[in-house]
C-alpha cells in the first residue's frame, strides 16, 4: 500500500460526471489509483430490449502497480451469470460456453473496422500463468520473443514453435511483478501447457498454471476504443506502447487492462475476475460498445490477416512464412527453433508468405491456389459477409509468383492478392549485416 501521509493528492474529473478518480503519488514513485465508477445497471425488458435503469451500481477500482501480491488470481469459479445475462440479450451460446453471435455480426464488424467500438468475450481463449524465479529465462528459451529485455508492466507477442520453427501458436504475454501471463488460442492452450511442463528441469524454479477457468477475458476493438477508455477514466493507457498493462480492482476483485486486442496493436484487452465480469460487460455496453460474438470475431480475424492455429499456424508452415516477424528475436541467445530461423534469414530462405485474397465466390479452405495453371499455394481461411469484401480468404503463396494486386485462381474462383493490416504491420528481418546482426527490411 502507498503511504498516503507522504503523498500529494490530485483529483481528476472525467468527462462523465459519474466517474471520480483520486490519484496518490508517493515519494517512492509507487502509485495507487482509487476510482469510484458508477456502473449503469442494465437489464432486459419483457420485450428482450435492453434498458438503463435509474439505479446505479458503485464499484471501487484500485490500481496496484507496485505489488502483484495485491493482485490475486484466485477469484471464485465462474457462476455463469454473465452468460445468462448475454443469453437474455439474445446471444446464441454453444454447449461449451462460447458466445457465437448476438445476431448483429455485420453491425459489430462495422463498428470494429469503420466507426465504432466492439467488445468481444474471449473467455474461452487459453490463459497460462508462469511463476517462479526462473520464469523469464525459461520463456526466453521456449519461445521466440526476447523476454529478458522487458520490464514489469510491459508486454509482447511471442510464438511457440517446434524445433524446426514450425508454428504452434502466437501468444500475447504480460510481464507482471511475480508472474508472466500468456493468452493464446483455446485449441493450443493444453498443448502449450504440457509442452512447457515437459521442458521444466529439476533445478528450474518455474511453475505453469492454467488460469483459464479462473478468469474472464474481453477485448475492445475499433476506432472509438480510445474514447471509450477515456470515458472509463482509463485514458492514461491511451497512446502507451503495445503490451503495456496496469492492474485495477472492481468491487475488490482484480482486473488487468492492457494495450492491444490480440488481433491488433490497437484496442485494449481486459483480464478480470468472473465476479466482476457481468458488471464490467454491462458498463461497456452502456458506453456504446457493440457486442461481438465468436462468428464475427473469426470474420474480423480473417479480414485483418491474423494467422490462427490449425489454419495458418500448423506444422506445414514456419514462423517467418506466417509473417510473425515482430514476435521474433534473433539476437537473444539459444531458443527453440532459433537455428532454423537464423538460416532462413541469413540465406533468404523464406519460400512463401501469407496474403489476403479477395475472392469472386466462395472457396473451400485447403484448396490449391494456382497461377496460369501452376500450383503456387494453399487457401487456409475463408469468410463471407453481406458487405464488401463479400468473399475473402487468407492463403500461402510462393514468393515471386504473386504480389499485391496479382490474380490467382482457387479452382474456378478468381482471386486478387491484397495486403492485410496485421501482416502489413510486421517488419521483416533481412540477411545478416557485416556486424553479424540482422537488419530490418527497407522495401
TrEMBL record:
Domain Aminomethyltransferase C-terminal: 353-411
Similarity-based family: Belongs to the GcvT family.
Top-rank lineage group of the source organism: Eukaryota
Organism: Kingdonia uniflora
GO cellular component: mitochondrion
UniProt keyword terms in alphabetical order: Transit peptide
Matching Pfam families: GCV_T, GCV_T_C
InterPro entries, per database record: GcvT/YgfZ/DmdA (IPR028896), GcvT/YgfZ_C (IPR029043), GcvT_C (IPR013977), GCVT_N (IPR006222), TrmE/GcvT-like (IPR027266), YgfZ/GCV_T_CS (IPR017703)
Residue intervals of the GCVT N-terminal domain: 111-332
Protein name (record): Aminomethyltransferase folate-binding domain-containing protein
Amino acid at each position: 500500500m502507498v503511504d498516503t501521509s507522504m503523498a500529494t493528492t490530485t483529483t481528476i474529473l472525467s468527462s462523465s460526471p459519474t466517474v471520480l478518480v483520486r490519484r496518490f503519488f508517493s515519494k517512492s514513485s509507487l502509485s495507487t489509483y482509487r476510482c469510484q465508477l458508477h456502473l449503469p445497471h442494465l437489464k432486459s425488458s419483457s420485450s428482450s430490449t435492453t434498458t438503463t435503469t435509474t439505479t446505479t451500481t458503485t464499484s471501487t477500482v484500485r490500481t496496484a502497480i507496485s505489488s502483484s501480491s495485491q493482485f490475486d488470481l484466485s477469484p471464485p469459479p465462474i457462476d455463469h451469470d454473465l452468460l445468462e445475462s448475454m443469453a437474455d440479450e439474445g446471444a446464441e451460446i454453444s454447449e461449451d460456453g462460447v458466445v457465437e453471435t448476438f445476431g448483429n455480426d455485420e453491425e459489430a464488424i462495422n463498428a470494429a473496422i469503420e466507426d465504432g467500438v466492439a467488445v468481444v468475450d474471449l473467455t474461452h481463449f487459453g490463459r497460462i500463468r508462469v511463476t517462479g524465479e526462473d520464469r523469464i529465462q525459461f520463456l526466453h528459451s521456449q519461445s521466440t520473443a526476447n523476454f529478458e529485455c522487458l520490464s514489469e508492466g510491459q508486454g509482447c507477442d511471442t510464438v511457440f514453435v517446434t524445433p524446426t520453427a514450425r508454428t504452434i501458436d502466437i501468444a500475447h504475454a504480460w510481464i507482471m511483478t511475480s508472474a508472466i501471463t500468456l493468452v493464446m488460442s483455446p485449441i493450443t492452450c493444453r498443448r502449450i501447457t504440457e509442452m512447457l511442463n515437459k521442458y521444466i528441469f529439476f533445478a528450474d524454479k518455474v511453475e505453469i498454471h492454467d488460469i483459464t477457468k479462473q478468469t474472464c477475458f474481453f477485448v475492445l476493438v475499433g476506432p472509438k476504443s480510445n474514447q471509450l477508455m477515456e470515458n472509463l477514466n482509463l485514458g492514461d493507457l491511451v497512446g502507451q506502447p503495445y503490451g503495456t498493462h496496469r492492474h485495477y480492482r472492481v468491487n475488490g476483485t482484480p482486473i488487468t487492462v492492457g494495450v492491444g486486442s490480440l488481433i491488433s496493436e490497437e484496442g485494449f484487452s481486459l483480464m478480470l475476475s468472473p465476479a466482476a465480469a457481468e458488471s464490467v460487460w454491462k458498463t461497456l455496453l452502456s458506453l456504446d460498445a457493440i457486442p461481438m460474438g465468436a462468428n464475427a470475431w473469426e470474420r474480423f480475424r480473417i479480414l485483418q490477416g491474423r494467422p490462427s492455429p490449425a489454419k495458418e499456424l500448423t506444422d506445414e508452415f514456419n514462423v517467418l512464412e506466417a509473417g510473425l516477424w515482430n514476435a521474433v528475436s534473433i539476437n537473444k541467445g539459444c531458443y527453440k527453433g532459433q537455428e532454423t530461423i537464423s538460416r532462413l534469414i541469413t540465406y533468404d530462405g523464406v519460400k512463401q508468405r501469407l496474403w489476403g485474397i479477395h475472392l469472386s465466390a466462395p472457396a473451400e479452405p485447403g484448396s490449391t491456389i494456382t497461377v496460369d495453371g501452376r500450383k503456387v499455394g494453399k487457401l487456409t481461411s475463408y469468410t463471407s459477409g453481406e458487405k464488401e469484401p463479400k468473399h475473402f480468404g487468407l492463403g500461402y503463396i510462393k514468393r515471386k509468383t504473386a504480389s499485391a494486386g496479382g490474380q490467382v485462381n482457387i479452382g474456378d474462383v478468381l482471386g486478387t492478392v491484397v495486403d492485410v493490416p496485421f501482416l502489413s504491420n510486421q517488419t521483416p528481418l533481412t540477411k545478416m549485416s557485416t556486424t553479424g546482426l540482422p537488419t530490418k527490411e527497407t522495401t
